[in-house]
Amino acid sequence: MGYVAVTAGEEVITRAEQLFEKQRVDGDSAELGIDQVDEQLGRLTAQAMSESGLYAPRLAGLAVKQAQGDTIEAAFLLRAYRSTLERYDETVTVDPGEMIASRRVSPAFKDVPGGQILGATKDYTQRLLDFALEGDGETSDPTAEWDVDDAGDPDRLTNVTELLREENLLYEPDEVDSEEPTDTTRKSVTHPPARDAVLQELARGETGAITALGYSALRGYGQVHPTLAEVRVGRLPVRITHPYTEEPVTVTHTEVTESEAVVPVYEKRDDPQFAFGYGLTFGRNERKAIGMTVLDASIQLDSEAEPAENAEFVLDTIDGMDSFGFIEHLKLPHYVTFQSILDRIRSIRKRQGVSAEGAADTGSTHQPAAEVSDDD
Amino acid sequence: MTERDSNKGVDDSDPQAAETDGGTHVTSDSVDAALDDIETTGVAGYNYAYLDEHTKREVRRAMLKAVAIPGHQVPYASRPMPLARGWGTGGIQASLSLLDPTDTFKVIDQGADESVNAANIRRLAADTADVETTTDTTAADVIQSRHRLPEEVLTDEQRLVLQVPITDALRKVDPSDTANRRRHAHQNYGKMWVHLYENVVEYGEINIASRYPTMVAGRYLMDPSPIPRWDVPKLDDADHLTILAAGREARIYAVPPHTSVEPLAFEDRAFTVERFPDQACHACGSTDTYLVEVSEETADEGGFETRYACNDSSFCAKRRENPALSKDHHLDQSGVDWGPGTPDAGDGGETE
Is B204 known to be catalytic? Predict the structure, then answer.
């Protein structure tokens, strides 16, 4: 008892950690390098960066490796690390129109200024297992033989929504204060939330949850069925104000996925305009960006009728750290509260004259009328 | 002064300043060097008590506000912790913000010091906040607990931090925080009263096990965290400060010393605690403590027997040494009222 048991508790924790680590190194294969994770499993690191809100590809590679491929666990490691870092400065707001796009499609129009850029995608690939990847031989670059000229840096692409804005067809959501943006990691969300808080929470949301809730709106639990103005993947500059010259300087780039949608839900009767939805996420993750777009547009409808249109419901459920933590906490001991629950059900059974052998048939209805408080 | 303003005061060229103010100081601007830093420093590279000083100050401000408005939920920017949310991250943020190196810290989970999660939280505090740890309730300055108040009476020298999964008692009757905050503002608890009344109609008594809705200082309805009903009366007019902290839901609230804490009940359906009729702890013989039942296999095949044991494992150990030890043995005065005994009347709460 006492101190001995405490020591045992801590030793058990260490042993459990060691067993978990053993699972990673148990096979005969070579150790996985962080660069390999970042380069060859880039979708995993992108998801971890997006859900953690920390753009750091090598750290994300480390986190994915340490978490043995569990993206939420990896995002969790990154968030816990991020929260201990000093915040030195804020970046200058950048216009996503500056994006150096490697991919850009506009479903809304057949052709758009700047053209459609299909880029790297699996969208039209037949999903057949490629057994050629099975071998661990040399990798080869299938584009090595391409006969193309380097066209240099692309021109700035006109945003498709700009075309609609010129015609005044697009409703502008409330302007976000870009001088003092909300930061939900420093100020917890209260309701009703500002739109920038909604966008930040969505951008950090768990990919599966964003996809599922976005899909729910399309599936019929909502009014938003958007037309995507465009989906882009590309690099955005990160700029800070130079401490001496006070000019903005580009310090690095981040890869992002952006999605913009128009929604044929008219904000005003006398001046019909499309509603607007926006999605932006770190790394390449088109399904999350599009899901975020649907949810942004849905939340602007501000209704309690459908889950996706209720900001409280969406923001309360999409964060991977929150949902994973609370779902898995059910593994913790609950014997104190369960004893309390047993006390209630035994007392009620006794009052109703029900013995351990079962109920005398009193013709009572069998509807679950209420639950005992066990939601801890 | 906002956090951002104050950060501007930090001289980036002075690593000492950066380190004191904000946790891990990354000495290099390259990711490789940052990775090297992580490998070489570990927990030792973090700020005192893990959290940076700004965060601890913010948590303490939230606690002060919570003390000033007993039972009111104060939002704070709950930080991501190296523990999963829902596993005591609010409690540990509150504890780490309270602790200083002279403090002795006790962590219990469901009444047990030796629980794995309690051990994990204790080792984070011991590693980063340089505190002594103890399993002895009377020796602790700060006690972090999940779902229990200790059996031994807490004193005005002690602070209790309860881990909170669900911050609002009204969540049971309405999931919307917006609607519930309005109800709290208007002290409009009609929906909860109706819920309790419907319980009585359906079952003849109130069917709430733990997380019992409780009025604090006659003003705010509070979720006392999933402590059993057994522990709720101990909060009333207590000598110690209770901080209730939720990490996932980012709220802190408090019951200051000598504050009235009254569980909701009806005149003809009184609040009742858990009953353990005719049972005593099989280890120490106590009949005035919260017991939990444990089933064990018996010698005959397929059979099992149920035994009861004290839930507070630290106090149970003391009682085994000295079965007559009272719950207020460490106080100057005796007869301090602290929690219920074990009533054996199974009358379901009618007071007539």
Answer: no
Does residue B22 have an active-site annotation? Answer: no
pLDDT given at position B38: 47
The total of other beta-carbon atoms located within 10 Å of residue A333's CB is 18
What residue spans define the domains of chain B? Answer: 3-45, 53-263
List of chain B residues whose C-beta atoms are within 8 Å of the C-beta of residue A327:
86
CA distance B262 to chain A (A): 18
What pLDDT is attached to residue A112? Answer: 86
Residue B300 pLDDT grade (very low, low, confident, very high; cuts 50, 70, 90): confident
Strands B104-109 and B142-146: parallel
- The pairing of strands B132-133 and B74-75 is unpaired
User: What's the Cα-to-Cα distance from A147 to each of A117, A118, B91, rounded to whole Å?
Assistant: 18, 18, 62
Which residues of chain B lie closer than 8 angstroms to A341, CB-CB? 209-210
Beta-carbon contacts of B272 under 8 Å, excluding residues fewer than 6 positions away, are B205, B229, B348, B349
Nearest to B110 among A8, A185, A336 (CB): A336
Interface touch B85/A321, C-beta < 8 Å: yes
Q: How far is CA B271 from the centre of its chain?
A: 21
Instruction: Tell me if residue A139 falls in helix, strand or coil.
Output: coil
For chain A, give the mean pLDDT: 86
Contact A325 B207 (CB under 8 A): no
The answer to whether B107 and B121 have CB atoms below 8 angstroms apart is: yes
CA atoms within 13 A on the CB side of A276: 19
ipTM of the complex: 0.81
Q: A119 CA to chain B: closest CA distance, Å?
A: 29
Q: Where are the alpha helices (DSSP H) in B205-263?
A: 232-235
Q: What are phi and psi of A286, to 5 degrees?
A: -65, -35
Q: What is the mean pLDDT of residues A207-214?
A: 97
Check if the beta carbon of residue B20 is closer than 8 Å to that of residue B53. Answer: yes
pLDDT of residue A159: 84
Instruction: Please name which of A368, A75, B139, A293 lies closest in space to residue B150, comparing C-alpha atoms.
Output: B139
User: Is B71 tagged catalytic?
Assistant: yes
Q: How far apart are CA A263 and CA B60, in angstroms?
A: 45
Cβ pairs A/B, distance under 8 A: 233
For residue A185, give the nearest of B7, B77, B311 by CB distance: B77
CB of B118 closer than 8 Å to CB of B147 = no
Residue with tokens 């939601």, as numbered in its chain: A375
Specify whether the CB–CB gap between A99 and A258 falls below 8 A. Answer: yes
The yes or no reply on domain B53-263 and CATH 3.30.565.10 is no
* Residues of chain B positioned with their CB less than 8 A from the CB of A325: 84-87, 89, 248
Predicted pLDDT of residue B341: 53
Render pLDDT for A327-371 as a digit per residue (tens, 0 to 9).
999 999 899 999 999 999 999 998 888 877 766 555 555 555 555
User: Which residues in chain B (194-253) have CB-CB distances under 8 A to chain A?
Assistant: 198-199, 202-205, 207-212, 225-230, 248, 250-251
Q: Specify the pairing of strand A227-241 against strand A248-263.
A: antiparallel
CA B140 → CA A90, B57, B266, distances in Å?
Answer: 42, 23, 37
Q: How far apart are CA A20 and CA B283, in angstroms?
A: 36
CA-to-CA distance for A284 and B152, rounded, in angstroms? 56
* Lowest-pLDDT range of A216-225, A363-372, B46-55, B277-286: A363-372
Of A188, A192, A347, the CB nearest to B178: A192
**What pLDDT, on a 0 to 100 scale, did the predictor assign at position A351?**
87
Report the run of H or E that residue B317 belongs to, with start and end. helix B313-321
Q: How far apart are CA A214 and CA A219, in angstroms?
A: 9
Question: Residues B273, B340: contact at Cβ < 8 Å?
Answer: yes
pLDDT in tens, B81-92: 999 999 999 999
| B348/A351 touch (CB, cutoff 8 Å), yes or no | yes
The SS3 assignment for B170 reads helix
